[in-house]
Amino acid sequence: MGLVKTRRSALAPLLLAVAGSTLAAAPPEHLLESARSGQAVPPGYRQVAAEHSIPPSLFYAVALTESGYRMPAVESPRPWPWTLNIRGEGHYYPSQRAAATALSATLSAGETAVDVGLMQIHWHYHHAALGNIRSALDPYHNLRVGAGILAECYRQRTDWWSATGCYHAPNNATLAQRYQARVQRHWRSLQQDP
């Protein structure tokens, strides 16, 4: 089965068909870098966070909240780059190609309420920043778009925890607070100060 984790939906048969037949045996190397180096935050996340003046551990905690997946090769969850959330259902694909095929099929079916990639960028609201399907699923491009959104939330809210809530639900305080609590749990597990 190409989808690692999903719930039933009307799109499930189509998504299963386009995803391929097996999950990749090993995650991409950049997802394991922190596990091997002993750092809580992988270098790529640190780099993008620095570009946007975001505390690295907070940025990584948002990515964990958005696309975290527990892979067999590592003990703790890692953000998964080829994650789509379609109509509230998370789908983890074995490759960028499989995720791109599924995203293309979903968009062709008229569904634009899709969160894409490591930072789960909402296609409907941010498709201009995401660009095309391929760039939307490029891990570093996706991180940079997400960092831009989070940095803008910080400029509006002037507090990093409030900014994380804004990232998920800018116009719904209840959802924003729940999301903020989830990010804080991930952040605490990193044992670093934002």
From TrEMBL:
What stretch or stretches form a coiled coil here? none
Q: Which InterPro entries match?
A: Lysozyme-like_dom_sf, Transglycosylase_SLT_dom_1
Q: Where is the Transglycosylase SLT domain?
A: 49-178
Q: According to the UniProt entry, where is the signal peptide?
A: 1-24
Pfam families (UniProt xref):
SLT
Query: Which keywords describe this protein according to UniProt?
Result: Signal
Q: What is the name listed in the Swiss-Prot or TrEMBL entry for this protein? A: Lytic transglycosylase
